[in-house]
Design goal:
Length: 236
Amino acid sequence: MPGSRVETTFHLYTYPPSSCAARIRLAFSFKNISYTSHPIDMPTLEHESASYRALNPSGAVPTLVVETQYPGEAVEPTRFVLTQSLAILDYLDEIFLDEHALLPARDRPAERARVRELVHVIAEDMFPLTNARVGRWVKGIGGEEGEWERWAERVLRRGFEAYERLLERNEKDEFFSGGKFSCGDRVTMADVCLLPQVETARRFGVGIEGWERIKGIVERLEELEEVKRAGVRVEE
């Protein structure tokens, strides 16, 4: 009966080229969660507007807004706003634990840590130093033409090398060995962070041909309907 149950809606503020926003689109897709997309026009600096920064003080994407309507007309809906892609991934995995968990079970703390280890190679070692905003700041303080791009390329190559070596190490772990993806046969948080970063790397002219484990994972990910539905694809 209408109005007799709690209704929750998800609103994702996103920018298509953003690898951080792509992580959330992938998570929504694998968990089969419906949401409303609100594209932010970053080239026109919409993300720096007062209205958007009221939602996300960092002036970045993604931003997740969760609206919950409770039964009864007199009850005001609640609004929960969350920024930072890793926080959003953790939140979605907590509230939709039964819909394609992105981390191993809680009774596998070592394996959960292994997944997060790979996530942080992407999110801490690679992404911040190749972010377009950082690039603008670097160019703003001077330097030779193309210097930031060369720097970003080195950062990406070093990060992919570390990721590949960790994959090699994890092959010795029975829990992960022989798997199709970063941490076994199930797509995890590591994979939803890896694929968008590979897409970003292509823009810097960095391919993944030299890292066979990563290359195989990406090829298998791109075959999945959930990835196609999320609109995340590594361009050749």
